[in-house]
Amino acid sequence: MDDERPHDPMNPWTDRRADRGPPRRRRAVSEAARRLFLFVRESGPSAGGHASAEGRGRPRTDLDPFDDRIRYPRAMPAPQPDRFARPSADADRSIRDQRRSTALGRTLSVLSIGLLFFAPAASRAESMVMLLAPRVLETIGATTFDERGEIVGQSSLEIEAEASGLRRMRVAMVIEGGGTNLSQAILTPIEAAGAATGEIALRIVEERSQATTAEGISFPLLFIDHRIGRVSCYPADQASSAGQHVYIPGEDRVVNVPMQLLFMPLVRNEVDSLRFQIATCAPGPMLHQMIAVRGNKVRRDGRDVVEIEYRPDFGEVVAWLASRLLPSFSFWFDAKNGQYLGHRMPLHREGPEVLLVRNGLAPPDIGVD
Questions:
Q1: Residue 1 lies in a domain
Q2: Which of 147, 188, 171 is nearest to 340 (CA)?
Q3: Residue 7: inside a domain
Q4: Which helix (H) or strand (E) holds 70?
Q5: Position 2 in a domain
Q6: How confident is the model over 246-299, as pLDDT tens digits?
Q7: Cα–Cα distance, 45 to 113 (Å, whole number)
Q8: Distances 310 to 204, 290, 329, 339, 352 between C-alpha atoms, Å
C-alpha cells in the first residue's frame, strides 16, 4: 500500500487556488536560537515510528503541488474505500516489526535539549481532535511581512463548504519572489458533538502541504491521512513509490493546517493550555510534540486582541529552559468573537519567519510593534 497514491475522493489538489513577554522582546530572540528551534522542529524530537522507505534526491522545480496528476499518475490504482478501515497486511507486519524493535524504547530519552519518544502502538484510524467550525465561512486576505516589518507579499486563508458537507481549508503563505507555503485540510462535520450548543464540530480527514524556496526548489509534499493514521512525505523529484511513511502511534492529535480552529478554546478562556502534535518532512516524516498557551492581551482601537503562543513541548523537565532559549510562534485573535487577525511562523524549515496580518490591519493593530 505504501507505493499507492493517497485515497482522495474529493481530489483536493486539482483546484488551483492560489517567558510570554511583549512582542518586542520576542523579536529580540537571537538568530542562533531561532535556527536551533527550527533544527529541533525539523530534525530533532519526534514521536513514534520509522520511515518505511528511503529516498531523498534533488528537488525539482517543475512540480505543482495542486496538480494531483503530476505526483500521483491516474494509471496508478487507487485503494478501495474499505481498505481504509485498517492498515494493509504489509503495513500490519511493518507495525508488528516496529513493536518488537521499539519494545525497549518506551522510557523517555533525553537528546540534547529535546526529547525523543518511541511509541510502538498503532493509532486509531481517525483524528481524536474535535474543532469548532467558524460561524462564518470566509476567504481572508492577509498581508505578508518579513522580520523587519516590510511588506513582502499577499497571502490568503479560506474555508468553504463542499456540496458533500465537507469543509475545505486552504492557506497560502506567499513572499513575492521569495517562496511559498501552500497547505490544505479536509474536515468532516460531527453532528452529535455540537448538538448541545448548536455549534458544528469538525474532525480532520486529511492535510497536505508543500513549500517552495525563493529559487523555486520544492520541499517534499507532506500528506497526513487521518483515516488510516499515517503521515507520508513524497519527494518532489521521485515517483510516489519513493514516499516515506510512518503510522501515528497512540491517539492521533496531529494538527498542521487548521490551527486557528484548534486554538479556539484558548481564545475563549476555556482552557489554559493545549497539547497537540505537528508533522514535518525532515526529509522523512516526523512527529513533534507541541504546546499552545494564552499569551498577552492588548487593546487596540477598541478591540481586545489575544495572542496564542505555541512551541515544542519538552514537558516539565526542560520547559523553563525552553521558554527562554527557544522562540515561540503565535496566532492573534479578536478576544470577543474569535476572529482571526494574524499569525507568525517560518515559511518553511529553511526559510524566513513571516508575519501574516489580516487585510485592513497593520502589525501594531494586533500588538506587534
A1: no
A2: 171
A3: no
A4: helix 68-71
A5: no
A6: 999 999 999 999 999 999 999 999 999 999 999 999 878 999 999 999 998 999
A7: 9
A8: 20, 7, 6, 18, 18
